[in-house]
Amino acid sequence: EILISAIKQHSNILAWASDGMKANRDVVALATQSNGLALQFADSSLRADREVVLGAVDQNGLALEFASAELQADREVVLAALKRDGQALQHASALLRDDREVVLAALDEDVLALQFASPELRLELLAPAGGRQCRQSKQHSRKRSRKRTRLGEDDGCLRPRSRNL
After folding, report:
1. C-beta separation of 71 from 95 below 8 A
2. At 25, which helix (H) or strand (E)?
3. Residue 151 φ/ψ, nearest 5 degrees
4. I want to staple 64 with a disulfide (CB 3.0 to 4.6 A). Which of 28, 81, 100, 151 is the partner?
5. pLDDT, position 131
6. Which residues contact 146 (CB under 8 A, 6 or more apart)?
7. Is 99 in a helix, a strand, or coil?
């Protein structure tokens, strides 16, 4: 009771909980509801529990780092994490970091996630379609300071995201 009350107020208290409490599904689910990163303190069996991990990454996508390798390779879990934080791509399996749809989902949330894509896919996404040079490359280089960009649909260039989207 005291621990449950403390977890509601401070989810990181799970770090000092007993091993039994760290293996308690209800306690860990409660902690990860308010702070997905509390998953790092959970017992390894719960880091492999799909429902617990989905709850954690839904709160904080970067909680994917503490999921089991099997769940880091689970497409649904990774996509849920990427909805919260595109940078979570760095914790996805190598196979998913080479998956175009998964990487595009990460880029939709944070273009800087491109650095975590497989080298081959990164080159493919950065190369202009059909080998053409980007028509507006000078404009793009001047606008790199903009926070968000998206993959261009007509020429394959990365360009600033329209404010109207």
Report:
1. no
2. helix 25-34
3. -70, 125
4. 81
5. 55
6. 160, 161
7. coil
Find where tokens 């429902």 sit.
51
Query: What CA–CA distance (Å, rounded) separates 90 from 81?
Result: 11
What is the CB neighbour count within 10 angstroms for residue 133? Answer: 8
Q: For tokens 């709850």, what's the residue?
A: 55
The dihedral over CA atoms of 128, 133, 134, 137, expressed in degrees to the nearest 10, equals 130
Helix (H) or strand (E) holding 22: helix 19-22
Q: Residue 162: what pLDDT?
A: 41
By the 8 A CB rule, do 158 and 149 touch?
A: yes
pTM to 2 decimal places: 0.76
Contact 84, 58 (CB under 8 A): yes
CA distance 85 to 81: 6
- Candidates 76, 78, 75, 89; CA nearest to 118 is 89
Give the integer Cα–Cα distance in Å for 74 and 93: 8
Over residues 108-122, the mean pLDDT reads 97
